[in-house]
Design brief:
21 helices; globular; 80% helix
């Protein structure tokens, strides 16, 4: 098993030249403004992921309003959840060009607009566009920056910070379920969505709190991390050297491009200084040209970083363990989403509505989910514990619960399984940590964008698939069995690929010794 980036994946930088220099840590790394970033991310998870976990309430309202099949109606929730995650790689491009703060503020406006427009829906297909696509894209533009910023601001307590911030999903699922129930009962589902849209404008405030770190601070953070991992085992040293050489080759043209860009801006500044006697209109034109040039350079640099991460010499897809991680993500998320969307219907089918109204099963998942994220984060930050091992154990527990849930037909049995689902699904707080260990801080935005895109595909097809199976069999049992088996396939990929990756350098070293 693996414990660090050197063990799991690749090291994207050579710190041998800078390791000897004493680095004064930034007070905002692991402290100071970093905790405001955690608060911002926490609120984002409440307003976005918490709201999506409570969509089972609106799903029942839509079934009654539009009289469509369960499979078709479930597409509304699935589109919203799926698109939030699927747009991850493209949001990574926005972050590279505009930064996390601007991306999140624009996303907050789009998300609120999607909720408000959905209040005027005349059919399910209208909701596909307004709630599924518009609100989904807006959610994705806020969610990815919220995760990436926590990764940038924390070094020693990354798992705990991610755990605390992502507990917002559990709090949000609990609060939003109660809020949407109340709003739908008192004002109807249309007014409930309108009010929720107004509440979602607070995402813009969360985005404004995402103050970016300077490039110097990010370099210092990376050097500190490299020093702390110096004495750890490097099982994949051959792969690391290969990727380093790729990155060095990729950085040479980038440096040349930066020099050319500086020359262009320097020429513009020289013209501007030398032309002080020119007319006001000419000076305005020069300033406008300078602004456009700076914007163009920023866009080009952002696109170059985004493109190199996916298709360049240092492509993330050359990391085999990361590819296995993507395959796992394709199957995993639907197993968590399906219970949230269809549990209200399952409770109704088993005639357990009276007990569920006292304490909803989805609320049990949400509350225990909070403790799961924090506890798993604390355990993973212990020096003697591998984050990778904790991640895998939580996955095994969750897939067991998914396969067991259809066997429970009493409220107590369902409540116990839901509690275990909530706790084990706390591994979501470890996903950004594992991703950062795989690829490094520099590539975190693009890499995590790919992972949540795979999660989004899983969330997109999972609930409609479960609804389609129900329409055929009049049972949800097969939906959970198939989802659990596919989830198990993803976990097997996580187990097999690191073993292959670890074995290759050993084989090569044996061959070299024989020569």
């Amino acid at each position: 098993m693996y414990a660090s980036r050197e063990d799991i994946g690749y090291d994207f930088g050579d710190d041998s030249k800078v390791r000897s220099k004493p680095i004064k840590p930034n007070p905002n790394i692991d402290g100071g403004w970093a905790w405001m970033i955690v608060l911002s991310s926490f609120l984002v998870h409440i307003l976005i992921m918490g709201s999506q976990m409570a969509l089972g309430i609106l799903n029942m309202e839509w079934l009654e309003e539009f009289n469509q099949s369960r499979g078709l109606t479930a597409w509304v929730s699935s589109l919203s959840m799926g698109i939030t995650l699927i747009v991850g790689p493209f949001i990574g491009l926005f972050i590279s060009m505009c930064g996390c703060r601007t991306t999140a503020i624009i996303g907050g406006i789009l998300n609120a607009l999607g909720w408000i427009l959905s209040a005027y829906a005349s059919n399910v297909h209208y909701l596909f566009l307004t709630f599924g696509v518009t609100a989904g894209i807006g959610s994705g533009m806020v969610y990815l920056p919220a995760v990436v910023m926590v990764g940038q601001y924390f070094q020693k307590r990354r798992a705990l910070a991610q755990g605390l911030s992502t507990t917002g999903t559990g709090f949000g699922a609990f609060l939003m379920t109660a809020l949407l129930k109340y709003l739908c009962t008192e004002f109807g589902w249309r007014n409930a969505m309108f009010i929720q849209g107004a509440i979602s404008l607070n995402l813009c405030v969360c985005g404004a709190l995402m103050r970016p770190l300077s490039p110097k601070d990010l370099r210092e953070k990376y050097v500190v991390r490299s020093d702390s991992e110096e004495n750890r085992a490097k099982a994949l040293s051959h792969s690391t050297e290969t990727i380093k050489s790729n990155v060095v080759c990729g950085e040479e043209p980038e440096k040349k491009e930066e020099a050319a860009n500086e020359e262009v801006l320097g020429g513009v500044q020289h013209i501007e200084i030398g032309g002080k006697s020119a007319s006001g209109r000419s000076m305005y034109g020069l300033r406008l040209f300078k602004t456009v040039s700076q914007l163009t350079i920023t866009v080009r640099k952002g696109f170059a970083l985004w493109y190199s991460s996916y298709f360049g010499a240092a492509s993330l897809f050359t990391n085999r363990v990361f590819v296995a991680f993507i395959i796992w993500a394709l199957f995993a998320y639907s197993s968590f989403v399906i219970p949230f969307i269809h549990l209200p219907e399952i409770v109704k089918q088993y005639n357990l509505s009276r007990q569920d109204n006292v304490f909803p099963l989805t609320s049990i998942i949400a509350i225990v989910h909070i403790f799961g994220k924090v506890i798993l984060g604390i355990i993973s930050d212990l020096p003697c514990i591998s984050t990778w091992n904790v991640f895998l154990m939580a996955n095994f527990t969750l897939v067991t619960c998914i396969l067991t849930l259809p066997l429970m037909q009493t409220y107590i049995g369902l409540a116990v399984v839901c509690a275990l689902i909530g706790f084990s699904s706390g591994y979501f707080s470890l996903m950004p940590v594992v991703t950062e260990d795989l690829v490094g801080t520099k590539h975190l935005a693009n890499a995590y964008g790919i992972i949540i895109c795979a999660n989004g595909i899983s969330a997109l097809f999972g609930p409609p698939f479960a609804g389609w199976i129900y329409d055929i069999t009049q049972k949800y049992d097969f939906s959970f069995y198939i989802a659990g088996l596919l989830y198990m396939v993803g976990i097997i990929f996580l187990l097999i690929q690191p073993c292959i990756q670890k074995k290759q350098p050993r084989e090569k070293s044996t061959e070299e010794a024989q020569v």
